[in-house]
Amino acid sequence: MNHQEATPKNIVLIGFMGCGKSTVGRELHQRLGYRLMDIDHIIEETIGKKITEIFREMGEQAFREFETIQLAEISKQTGVRHIISTGGGIVIRPENRTLLRKLGYVVWLRAPEDVIFERTSRNRDRPLLNSPDAREKISSLLAEREPWYRETAHLRVDTAGLESHEVATGILESARYFFAHPA
């Protein structure tokens, strides 16, 4: 069986917060015309609350369950190609890692810890970073999640120092090869 038969032609973006998933997702959407599905935005629309409110009122576990439900729903859609932008913690659950790989070509967007801190430090809409030592929280979450990102991704792209159009170009070249060549 080759990639084409086994895997839908979706491009799935994973990675830590502040690594450019939403921005690169929009760039890929503009270039390919594929439907853009931002899991966090879908959850907010479905639940009727911001991510910060969901974390505060329902807890992280409830949010993680909503992520799994959304991935499962997307995986039921056939015949439509998507750009799927995920939340940074989606790889925590093993079932999500399996679903992500079944959804298509998984691209791990990475950035150094200092870059992530700079990009996220002024944003209060990141519930996991609303702590006295956000930098330490970034460091510990990165250390915890990195093996899961590595396990899930087909491609790793370091985004620091690159514009979103440059990242998108690299992803498109790699994705074309992935979908065109059987395993």
What would you note in describing this structure?
The chain has 183 residues and is an alpha/beta fold. It has a single domain (3-180), classed as 3-Layer(aba) Sandwich (Rossmann fold), CATH 3.40.50. The chain contains 9 helices and 5 strands. It has helices spanning 3-6, 21-32, 39-47, 51-58, 60-76, 94-103, 113-120, 134-152, 164-180; strands at 10-14, 35-38, 82-85, 104-110, 155-158. A 5-stranded parallel β-sheet has the order 2-3-1-4-5, with helices on both faces. Helix 6 (94-103) crosses helix 8. The longest helix has 19 residues, at 134-152. The protein is globular.
* Count of domain modules: 1
Overall shape: it is globular
* Physical arrangement of strands within the biggest beta sheet: 2-3-1-4-5
CATH superfamily: P-loop containing nucleotide triphosphate hydrolases
Shape-level CATH architecture: 3-Layer(aba) Sandwich
By DSSP (H or I, 4+ residues per run), the number of helices equals: 9
Cα Rg = 16 Å
Mean pLDDT: 88
Query: What does the largest sheet look like?
Result: 5 strands, parallel
Number of strands: 5
How far do the termini sit from each other?
A: 7 Å
At the third CATH level, what is the topology name?
Answer: Rossmann fold
> Which CATH class applies here?
Alpha Beta
Order of helices and strands: HEHEHHHEHEHHEH
Quick structural overview:
By secondary structure, the chain is an alpha/beta fold. Helix content is about 55%, strand content about 15%.
